[in-house]
Amino acid sequence: MRSLLFVPGDRPERFAKASASGADTVILDLEDAVTAERRGAARIEVARHLAKTARTVPQWVRINPVRSADALADLTSVIATRPDGILLPKPESIDDLWRVDHWLEALEAANGIASGSIAMLPIVTENARAVLSLGSWGRLPARVAGLTWGAEDLAADIGAEANRTADGAYEPPFLLARSLCLLAAGAAGVPAYDTIDIEFRNPEAIERRSREARRLGFSGQLAIHPAQIAPIHNAYTPSPDEIHWAERVLEAFRSSPSRGAVQLDGRMLDMPHMRQAQRILSAGRAEPKD
Fold first, then answer.
1. The CATH number of domain 3-236 is 1.10.260.40
2. Which of 154, 210, 279, 282 is the residue whose CA sits 20 to 30 A from 69?
């Protein structure tokens, strides 16, 4: 997934537009984009959409935090319509992930859905407690398809007035949270997805920041507006030059199967370079939808 586009769960007139935006995944939002008064109606709209719509792209649902009264109500209202995944906001510990995993397992069984069919993507840095505990999270439920992070709620949690500097760079606490998300995903062997960019009128800036995120190791990015999809895809889709380099790296290793290091263009390459080449080619297999 290069892009995961949010759409408010109480705005059904936007659901088709989100699906046609070119995004790799649509996230139907029952949390921050919906007021408490409209949450019940939003659940009905999301379930109706999932039940009736032929899916051209995966349809995920962001539920409310596991420690809220709304989380289980959100899940029970949509599971029968088989969302492709659940975005879990504000977990405070690994225990929260396992609790939702158990709920999903029970609801899958009750609705005749194969166990583990519905994926999960937690937003792992939306409060200070989660950030400080990430290093001890340990084994993730098998349905966890990646980790992502959040800067807006974390700013509110720690009392920060802003999470970026005037030139758009993240302030130090948020750089730490972002880095810990990336490292935790790497330790767990799952993709890391960068958080939202609140800019949507400047595609050049979006693409530049997305390229920087991909260079760090992120596999894709959350989005809040259809105008963000093209620059995000441009950033996360390997260029022909990158694919050519990766193919040459793998060919060099195939030509010397007994060696752990090879020479290419005057450089010594070893196993990390081979894994980097494999990752580039894997990302390049996705057909751009823009």
1. no
2. 154
